[in-house]
Amino acid sequence: AQKVTQAQTEISVVEKEDVTLDCVYETRDTTYYLFWYKQPPSGELVFLIRRNSFDEQNEISGRYSWNFQKSTSSFNFTITASQVVDSAVYFCALSEFYTGRRALTFGSGTRLQVQP
Amino acid sequence: EADIYQTPRYLVIGTGKKITLECSQTMGHDKMYWYQQDPGMELHLIHYSYGVNSTEKGDLSSESTVSRIRTEHFPLTLESARPSHTSQYLCASSEETTGGREKLFFGSGTQLSVL
Question: Cβ–Cβ of B104/A96 closer than 8 Å?
Fold first, then answer.
């Protein structure tokens, strides 16, 4: 069975602060994929990043960065110099390779509020 | 970018009514999904499809049914709506069919309220 845990239900920061959203996962497979999605108030989930289990290189995209650590089964997401437009619910998700017939398993989401 | 459309955006309906939530995508994706999102934000897979005439139930038991007669269309039907069906329903599609690495594209959702 696979499971994704996002322990932070809600985070509130002031604009320009850095913020890290935690994601811990469980899987028995050695090959799997991890994702982050953003759900703004409009409701549509937007894909942010996908990593496979063999690629532990951290990734940076603008103000966004991701820290993947297999040793701790974590895939954390950091927003640097947060902006009000970053306010949204962020979901971490997991997909196993050998059960690719199934869809993503999502965490419960972290609601990020960025105050001006 | 995939285009995936859900209608209606909001629906308020009385108990016992039959409803169909529409979902269409224009990118020719084989895989399509329905997720139910509860007020606590969690997303639960309720149905998925790998192509025409292929449908399967997801992780969360649902009284809804789906059909996939055309690649681009994946409607969800509730024969008799109840207040417990009140939720946000999200449709998604994906462009890859192997290995679990598929990236999902989501519609804007249908917020269903059953009175």
Answer: no
**Residue A88, CA distances (Å) to A10, A114, B28, B42, B90 in order:** 10, 9, 29, 14, 16
Q: Compute, in degrees rounded to 10, the torsion defined by CA atoms B81, B85, B88, B94.
A: -80
Determine the distance in angstroms separating the CA of A108 from the nearest CA of chain B, rounded to an integer. 4
Nearest CA in chain B to A52: B101
How far is B1 from B19, CA to CA, in rounded Å? 29
Q: Name which of A44, A89, A105 is nearest B107 (Cβ-Cβ).
A: A44
DSSP B84: G
- Residue found by looking up tokens 């059953």 in the block: B114
The single residue listed with the structure tokens 């309220």 is B113
Beta-carbon separation of A97 and B100 below 8 A: yes
What's the average model confidence in pLDDT over B75-79? 96
Which pLDDT tens digit goes with each residue over A21-66?
999 999 888 888 899 999 998 888 999 999 988 888 888 889 999 9
- Residue B62's pLDDT band, with cuts at 50, 70 and 90, is confident
pLDDT band with cut points at 50, 70 and 90 for residue A107: very high
Residues forming beta bridges with residue A79, ordered by sequence position: A19, A64
